[in-house]
Amino acid sequence: RDLHSSLHDALPIYHHKRWMSWLSDPQADEPEGVAGSVRVVDVPAALPDDLPAAVRALWHRGEQRAALALLYQAAVERLAQRLGTPQPPGATEGDCLSRSRRLADRRYAGLFARVVACWQAAAYARRMPATEQVEGLLEEWSAPPPPTAATRSAA
């Protein structure tokens, strides 16, 4: 082989970090606790009894991403309860949204979609919703479910 072809082969290897930086995680070099960095959020294994109060407390302490993660986790659990089946292992947000379309309760299906949208914007695009938007989600979360056919017939 001549020198030119050897350099041609070696150059991409030498500069691979600069040329392939778009494949790496840009937050990997950020120190722990940098505002807006995408990282795993510690969410309690058991959901709090008063979810809206817990989400508000996190939100007002400046832990917006953790607050949205908690709300999202609770929304996924409520979805599983309402469908009567657990989420499949490894279910993505899209999988959960697809499952939510099977709900008879269209109001909760809409709330679930809005929670997922807020979570995805925060987790992947680092865009936090306005406090008013989170408050609206929490108010809707706390609203009583609509009557079911069994409840209507008992009335």
Q: What does the model show?
A:
- With 155 residues, this protein is an all-alpha fold.
- It contains 8 helices and no strands.
- Helix 3 packs antiparallel against helix 7.
- It is globular.
- The C terminus is likely disordered.
Total of helices: 8
Low-confidence stretches: 10-43, 150-155
Gyration radius from CA atoms, angstroms: 22 Å
How many strands appear in the DSSP assignment?
A: 0
Euclidean distance between termini CA atoms: 88 Å
Q: Percent of residues in beta strands?
A: under 5%
> Mean pLDDT, nearest integer?
76
The 3D shape can be described as globular
How do the SSEs run, as a string of H and E?
HHHHHHHH
Helical content, roughly?
55-70%
Backbone structural class: mainly alpha
Write a concise synopsis of the structure shown.
The protein is an all-alpha fold and 155 residues long.
List keywords for this structure.
155 residues, 8 helices, mainly alpha
Write the layout of secondary structure elements.
Blueprint: H1 3-14, H2 16-19, H3 51-60, H4 64-83, H5 93-100, H6 106-125, H7 131-142, H8 149-154
